[in-house]
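F.,

This is the one I mentioned.
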């Protein structure tokens, strides 16, 4: 890798980039009975209801009409308007509460609870409710388990990029402080983003698109909303650990006088053993989770396994040494103004070595007789 950094770097980045392409179609959601394992009671119940009454019967929408003078009439008008919308199979009669100010009825969609069509229907009903408010004199809200799952998934999707941005910025600040370099932290976080993108691409291809999902005795479904948040948090910690193991030893060799390429080779030779052992242990642990017939456990086990595989062996032990060898002395460049602002944590113990050398050079004072 140090001898031919450019071909190694291009091959690794291109390979992870191809694997990451399905991540562009990432769709978050909460799994329903259709994602349960074949033969499980949840899957059999879901299939029986779908065959008898249609997939939408497993996830009806609850519509609440509130604040009307005549809630029964307002609910009837709202139900009539909603029943004419695309993707609606049936609308139940409204039920009025004892106070006589709120009515509730159910809408059965034509599609399953976790489908894109049902999500679009919830959005369409809420958009239509704004126009019906003035006509019926009441507010219309869509709730129920299906709508709640959609709202949770939307919230998690909106929070994903800000969460990732905070993680990346904190990593840049921490690595700049430790390595006293600009390019080394930048390379580290870009590699982390590449491994995360490749992980999401593999997860989408298998569990959302269904490429080989039969091997898990599961069916294709949207990705669990918590998976990206958990994967980013856990893999960030592991990735930074691997980065520290490898690059701190390279920096130590460089600070102690080794040339740029020699520092990379010697530092990698020592740190790679630790990273290989740690990654192999974590992969073994998470890979065992893929044997579960639970959709959530299986997808988390798969996501963590491929994430560690990509980050440890492709990013940290292939891309990192190639980039370090390619940059050479420039890898440790730090602007003077930034060097003055940053506190010196001195991980390598360089100040201790200088103090010891200075003490050895001081003449020994003769004791007074």
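My design for it:
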């Amino acid at each position: 890798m140090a001898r031919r950094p450019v071909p190694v770097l291009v091959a690794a980045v291109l390979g992870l980039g191809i694997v990451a392409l399905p991540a562009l179609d990432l769709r978050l959601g909460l799994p329903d009975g259709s994602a349960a394992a074949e033969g499980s009671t949840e899957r059999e119940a879901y299939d029986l209801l779908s065959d008898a009454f249609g997939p939408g019967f497993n996830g009806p929408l609850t519509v609440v009409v509130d604040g009307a003078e005549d809630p029964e009439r307002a609910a009837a008008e709202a139900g009539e308007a909603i029943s004419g919308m695309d993707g609606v199979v049936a609308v139940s009669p409204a039920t009025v509460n004892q106070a006589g100010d709120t009515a509730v009825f159910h809408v059965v969609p034509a599609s399953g609870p976790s489908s894109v069509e049902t999500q679009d229907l919830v959005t369409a009903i809420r958009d239509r409710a704004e126009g019906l408010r003035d006509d019926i004199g009441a507010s219309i809200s869509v709730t129920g388990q299906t709508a709640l799952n959609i709202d949770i998934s939307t919230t998690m999707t909106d929070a994903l990029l800000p969460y990732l941005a905070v993680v990346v910025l904190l990593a840049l600040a921490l690595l700049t402080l430790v390595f006293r370099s600009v390019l080394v932290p930048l390379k580290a976080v870009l590699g982390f983003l590449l491994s995360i993108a490749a992980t999401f691409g593999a997860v989408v291809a298998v569990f959302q698109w269904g490429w080989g999902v039969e091997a898990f005795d599961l069916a294709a479904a949207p990705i669990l909303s918590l998976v990206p948040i958990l994967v980013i948090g856990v893999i960030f910690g592991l990735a930074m650990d691997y980065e520290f193991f490898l690059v701190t030893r390279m920096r130590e060799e460089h600070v102690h006088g080794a040339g740029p390429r020699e520092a990379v080779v010697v530092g990698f030779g020592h740190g790679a053993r630790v990273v290989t052992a740690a990654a192999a242990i974590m992969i073994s642990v998470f890979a065992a989770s893929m044997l579960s017939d639970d959709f959530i456990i299986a997808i988390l086990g798969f996501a963590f396994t491929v994430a560690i595989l990509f980050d440890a062996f492709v990013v940290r032990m292939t891309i990192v040494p190639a980039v370090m060898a390619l940059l050479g002395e420039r890898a440790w460049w730090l602007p003077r103004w930034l060097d003055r602002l940053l506190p010196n944590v001195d991980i390598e113990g360089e100040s201790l070595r200088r103090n010891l050398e200075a003490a050895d050079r001081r003449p020994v004072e003769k004791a007074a007789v």
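Residues 68 and 137 are 6 Å apart (CA to CA).

Talk soon.
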